[in-house]
Write a structure and sequence with these properties.
heterodimer, A: alpha/beta, Rossmann fold, four-stranded parallel beta sheet, B: alpha/beta, Urease, subunit C, domain 1, 21 strands
Chain lengths: ~325, ~425
């Protein structure tokens, strides 16, 4: 595997292998000195054309735990308009010697374009509305451990609730969850669904309450205020009353059900209840697992020939 | 004065098909027959000798974006594509909304001397959709086709007034049908592909809604309209019904809309970004049916050069448009299941009539007619190579594609401007 651009790039077997490897990375992360020399001498560059402190920090931590060298380029997405093209940016930084770029961009497809201009591996850390494959992997890992489903998600019922249309997380999660055997239902107002769901192996519902008692996983997406400007939503309050997780809805969930959110959360909108009061909340586990999953991804892309033994002394 | 003869070809025009040599002197056809001789012989063995092609829709980028194309390089691409006249779209900088700019474009076309460059005029000043451009002055300066191409005229009241005002001037208003409120940020066809790729969609409805509005305005005013680059099956049906109702409407389709689908965007390569966007297989079938039954009057290229670096951007940042002049005949010849007479009709004499140049382009190949001719080899197979195109830009979506049919010679105003596939100037 040279790049990780999309969940499309992965088979179910490859997802399982990455999740197995994540188990090792969790173990590494639990050591007193959570660091191995696996990627010593490798240069991992974070190229964030869109701000995301949490994802960048997660990748950065992952790379450092594998002893890679790391560089951060926070490039404003407008730099293209200011004169330097995306191609020039990539070629310039590549010339410094880069083994992997971790790319976040507001434009769908930008990481795929970048593969044309560099020999480095590209890890998509989120592109537009398109894909966020490491989020899908960390979500799979969280469900796998949270529900003790090591072999498959067969029979699991997962609802993804909210702004599916504009969500790279939803696109990635739908592919990954269904590839592992889960049954996925998308829930939200029609204005926040993609214009066509042809070829999506999902069901659609607008009635969250009817689904709740049957769910193994309730996955809430962030809903942004600007959706009201485009007349996609009448008000955040109305969204919250129809699709937000409040005390009443939380009580309808099965006791074993997990509640997940990619962050950052809108408290009072999609998350009305304090997640600290939700026994099934996985939100902080997702964050912790994110580092281990990204270690597994970077190791898979760059770590050929090295192993995970020893420490980084 | 020298005498040029085209020998060994088959003449095909609106009056049919016959074997014959064509002799040209002083810019006119002086003899059509067999065994003709002259000072300069152009071999047309195996070729069709046709009236030259007329492209209703090209972007030559001059003035304003000469790094992408100039009137000279665009004219050369046109000549190599068999075109003897092209209508230059008005989205230049400054826009073609004044006699001064229109005269400049025409003059640059004359200087290049490779085909007749027909400047279009804007419908509204600066193509801003706010105030009418001076149709009367521009018509007096020889402008026949008016459009805000790149933008649709959004305001229905302004569009109604434009048609009413245009009526007595005998000009044609051409619409780029796009309801802008429905295409905010859109980069590709709205459907299953854009949903999967996470890209904002350009719904078919945005084209059809304005087309419907304008057909009804034509019904109201009786003033003729031309519809640019139809891209959807419903659009073809709307024009078909309007024609059945006897309304004075005409329409064009581009080669890319009848050869490529939105699935090309899977690559995220901005070379496939175009406005209106590439659509679906069903739309392609409808456009082909429209060309076959006469609903669509013309193939127009919407030749839209863009400097390479501008297309090396993410889809939402790259400009829309693709090259078309040098590949149009080959694609029509390869992809349309039409008799050659029909292909030539939609490339030559039908668009000549819409452009208002039927007195000198798309004429029958007969003694006394102006010598604007395309000599084409319909069986010549070739591979599209971006670096071998005459256009200043490289944004063809057909790189590497093998197509059938090539222009061997182009005669413009009696002068061979393309000989054996090479431009002579």
């Amino acid at each position: 595997m040279k790049h990780l651009l999309s969940v499309d790039d992965l088979s179910a077997t490859q997802i399982h292998e990455l999740l197995e490897l994540t188990d090792h990375m969790v173990e590494v992360s639990s050591r007193p000195i959570p660091k191995v020399p696996a990627l010593r001498g490798k240069n991992v560059v974070s190229l964030f054309f869109e701000d995301s402190t949490r994802t960048r920090t997660s990748f950065d931590t992952a790379a450092k735990r594998l002893s890679a060298d790391t560089m951060n380029f926070a490039v404003a997405s407008s730099s293209v308009n200011k004169g330097e093209s995306l191609r020039d940016t990539i070629e310039t930084i590549s010339a410094m010697g880069v083994d992997a770029f971790v790319v976040r961009h507001k434009s769908s497809g930008a990481p795929q374009m970048i593969t044309r201009w560099t020999n480095a591996s590209i890890v998509n850390a989120g592109d537009g509305w398109h894909q966020h494959p490491t989020q899908a992997l960390l979500d799979c890992y969280t469900i796998r451990t949270g529900l003790n489903r090591r072999d498959s998600f067969d029979g699991l019922r997962i609802a993804i609730v909210g702004d599916i249309k504009h969500s790279r997380v939803a696109r990635s999660d739908v592919q990954a969850f269904t590839m592992l055997g889960a049954h996925v239902t998308l829930v939200g107002p029609p204005t926040l669904l993609p214009p066509s769901l042809d070829g999506w192996p999902v069901e659609v519902s607008h009635d969250l309450d009817a689904l709740l008692p049957h769910l193994d996983v309730l996955y809430l997406l962030r809903v942004q205020r600007e959706r009201m400007d485009d007349a996609l939503l009448p008000s955040m309050h109305e969204y919250s009353s129809m699709y937000g997780l409040d005390q009443r809805r939380a009580a309808m969930l099965a006791p074993h059900a997990l509640v997940m959110h990619p962050g950052p959360m809108n408290r009072g909108v999609e998350m009305v209840i304090d997640p600290a009061d939700l026994p099934g909340s996985q939100i902080l586990h997702q964050v912790a697992n994110g580092v281990a999953v990204r270690m597994a991804v970077l190791f898979t892309l760059l770590g050929s020939g090295s192993d995970l033994k020893g420490d980084a002394s | 004065m020298s005498r040029v003869v085209i020998t060994g070809g088959t003449v095909v025009d609106q009056s049919g098909s016959r074997a014959g040599d064509v002799a040209i002197e002083d810019g006119r056809i002086v003899e059509v027959g067999t065994g003709l001789s002259g000072d300069r012989v152009l071999d047309a063995t195996g070729c069709i000798v046709s009236p030259g092609f007329v492209d209703l829709h090209v972007h030559l980028r001059e003035p304003g974006k000469e790094e992408a194309e100039t009137i000279e390089t665009g004219s050369r691409a046109a000549a190599l594509g068999g075109f003897t006249a092209v209508v230059a779209m008005p989205n230049t900088d400054p826009a073609q909304d004044s006699v001064a700019v229109v005269e400049f474009v025409r003059q640059q076309g004359r200087r290049a001397g490779l085909c007749e460059v027909l400047p279009s005029g804007c419908i509204t000043i600066g193509r801003n959709g706010d105030a009418l451009a001076p149709f009367g002055e521009l018509a007096a300066a020889g402008v026949h086709l008016f459009t805000d191409d790149g933008n649709g005229v959004q305001d229905p009241q302004l569009m109604r007034h434009a048609l009413e005002y245009a009526g007595p001037l005998g000009i044609v208003l051409a619409q780029h049908c796009e309801v802008a409120a429905l295409t905010k940020g859109a980069v590709m066809h709205e459907g299953s592909c854009c949903s999967r790729l996470g890209l904002p969609g350009w719904p078919a409805l945005a084209e059809e809604l304005m087309l419907f509005r304008d057909i009804e305005l034509v019904r109201l005013t009786g003033v003729p309209m031309h519809f640019l680059h139809l891209s959807t099956a419903r659009s073809v049906e709307l024009v078909r019904r309007a024609k059945a109702d006897g309304l004075p409407v005409t329409a064009e389709a581009t080669p890319h809309h009848f050869t490529l689908t939105d699935e090309m965007l899977d690559t995220y390569d901005a070379v496939y970004k175009v406005n209106p966007p590439l659509r679906t297989r069903a739309d392609i079938d409808a456009l082909k049916a429209g060309l076959a039954d006469g609903t669509i009057d013309a193939i127009a290229t919407d030749h839209a050069p863009h400097a390479p670096h501008t297309k090396e951007a993410p889809l939402d940042q790259a400009p829309p448009g693709m090259l078309g002049l040098e590949t149009a005949f080959a694609l029509a010849n390869t992809e349309l299941d039409l008799p050659i007479e029909r292909v030539l009709a939609v490339l030559s004499w039908q668009p000549a009539a819409i452009a208002g140049v039927a007195d000198r382009h798309g004429r029958p190949v007969q003694v006394g007619e102006p010598a604007n001719l395309a000599v084409i080899d319909p069986s010549h197979e070739w591979t599209v190579e971006p670096t071998r195109l005459a256009s200043k830009s490289r944004n063809t979506p057909y790189a590497g594609r093998v197509v059938r049919g090539k222009v061997r010679h182009t005669i413009f105003g009696g002068e061979p401007v393309v000989v054996d596939g090479n431009a002579t100037r």
